[in-house]
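Record Dehydrogenase, 745 aa.
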Amino acid sequence: MRTIHIGFLITFCLLISCQTSFKETQVSLEPYTIEEGFNLKVLAAEPLLKAPVAIDFDAKGRIWVAQMPGYMNDLQGSGEEDPNGSIVILEDLDEDGIADHSKIFMDSLVMPRALAHVYGGLLYAEPPYLWFVDIEDDKPVNKVMVDSIYAVEGNPEHQPNGLELNIDNWIYNAKSNFRYRRIDGEWKKEPTTFRGQWGITHDNFGRLYYNDNSRILLGDYVLPNSVIENKYFTPNESVDKLLTNDQRVYPAFAGSVNRGYAKGVLNADSILVNATAACSPLVYRGGKFTESYEENVFVCIPEGNLIKRVLLNFTGDSTIAQQAWQKKEFITSTDEGFRPVSLKNGPDGNMYVVDMHRGMIGHHAYMSPYLRDNAKAKELDTIVNFGRILKVSRENIEENVTPDFNSLNGSELVKLLLNDNGWVRDRAQHYLIFKKFNAVIDEVKELALNTKKPLSQIHALYVLEGWNALSFDFLADVGNKSEPQVASHALVLSKDFISVNSIDQANNFFTEVLNRNDVGLDVYLANALGHWIALNKEKFKPLLIKVLKRREQNTTVTDAVLSSIAKTDSILLNDGNIRQNFENTPFIEKLEKTLANKKEDRMNAIYTREVILEDTRTSGSKMFFQICASCHGADGKGIDGLAPPLMGSEHVKNTERLALIILHGLEGPVHVNGKRYDINLAMPGLIRNETISDQDIANIISYVTNAFSDRSKRLSEVRIGELRNVKSGTGMEFTEPELQALDEK
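=>
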């Protein structure tokens, strides 16, 4: 009997030890409305999560979450430098489809903002660094610094993020002009087009999409880095394009908006009119929604508590976007805590929403007095210890089982390149490369030539590129047999095989492409021909002239050519035949400007910008809290006996007067909004502090006018330098009458 009792006790203890640490959180979705035919489900919520900002899926399909609880804990943004961020793994131990456990992978991080499962490990951003770690038993090992200046300075809203692994095997970022890749264990970093603000995504072709606060969708008309090869040419017609002029949003209620007092921001019902904080677009590539949803873009509008649906139209040389509906959104909510900040395609074909679920989504450096008061009244600053992951799925659609990619062999991964789900295709491509399954090279080549599966062809080509297993002949064969999108990639990849030995094959291939007379193909044909002209002008110049002639006013084709002729640009400009054919065209005009840039050594900014600098308001806010807040208060409302309020002060609204006060100081009495402040202490000026520059003063003015008046203003460094020489009657602090007298001059 004693033995049975002990055995029961051991069994009971084992059962207890296997139970999850947290129960599944019950969250009501009653305040949420989603488009008919779709389901919205909470996969994880607090206390499993706190301020999630980004997710990715591992080889098993588990969700990994970057959490940023240090962001906007209060209206002053306190604690941003505290190491309270983390990366956690969500687990569903009872296998009911809802997370019931959150496992810490890394903690004590400061504002982690992005992560990506690549090369069998985890790439993650923790400013100022970009790190990579291997993973063993869900623990980080072998930590490697990929970039020590990934995000050196700046407001959390305006630092690099994203880490989007594209079809071309490079990893791209928003708010950055660099891309990354690991080859044979070594990390590579190189310039790319500067893109967007928060969040980045790609379509099935490999074009990139992004946005910023007030523009719901930006994007590149062309494949990454195809028009930036000439360092002295800055393309402005084919990358970083506004894809729609319609920035309207349709919130379900009157929420709190930063500049709601400004004309046109709100409608007659106090509802937001246009986007002010758009972020994290996602091209849906899951294959589980209806066909009309494939390659639609979904956009987060956290200030409006909604997610927008946008349609894309591809013309070959451009992309045009339009909102799917007017006066309607894909998801809306009357819960003002709903803050969608990131979207992801999932391994099951569904769409995943990262809901930071925070009262204050805008950084304190940008917060207007209007929003500050509104948020305080609604107690939005108390919504801080929340966070949710939501799943959007199509009704009555069977769930796919996510394969464990770590257990798949090469042939199984090749089959997954045929999958309808773009996430699965991307992951299969990546695993074939980094696991070096090149024993199945014949299967991959066969797929690259399978014209019935064009999307799979593109993936197969980049598997071969990752294995360094391509040749010009093979690319020409694929290009000649395949539809324009696949042939375009063959042209792009062919630039790595420019050789005297391939001149005849190249001439034949390019002639075949030219005869197809497809505008999309002409973009990449023109780009390839420019490189080959340096090798053989006689054979390839006539082909280039034909492309340019029939696309004479096509600015995307022009960008593609100018990017590719860095070695021959002056020769072509002085070529009589070129001059005769293209005088007074965009091509000649831009070519002349490019050569002028080269003469003056004026490069495209992406080749000279090393880091993203901190914006003025953020820099100013740091100095304000270091120097000014102890007397004027963090909220600018002043402190009795020390300093008058800044909020709404006439001394703040007048930037030159404000600069004089900051520089030289102010002696009382002082009036603010008609009230007299007879404080016995004089405010000292900063002019005698040699460590504070004119730029620092300008930054303080930028922050203070934004935070404590209804209009953000700036004053130039030059003017501040001039005001250093304006003195009071005593040569010390100004008095209020002296400042008023200067206003009248």
